[in-house]
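Troubleshooting: if your tokenizer reports a length mismatch, compare your output against this known-good record of 74 residues.
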Amino acid sequence: MAFEALLTDDLVRIAAAGGGFRLQAGVRATEDLVRIAAAGSRHNARLIFVGLGARTTDDIVRISAAGKGGVFFE
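Known-good structure output:
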């Protein structure tokens, strides 16, 4: 499944249900990634965000904190 084509609200729903996935996240807003990460943290979903090398450290920290250990970066 191409998760990149899904709306942020759909990804939040999947993560909130405990579903884990790998997402090419470079084009998503940081706030959207924070929402997805926070939703996944409630059910220990494993989320892999790819393509965030150009983000600031502060952005990565915000996403990481929201994910509470369930977000991995590639």
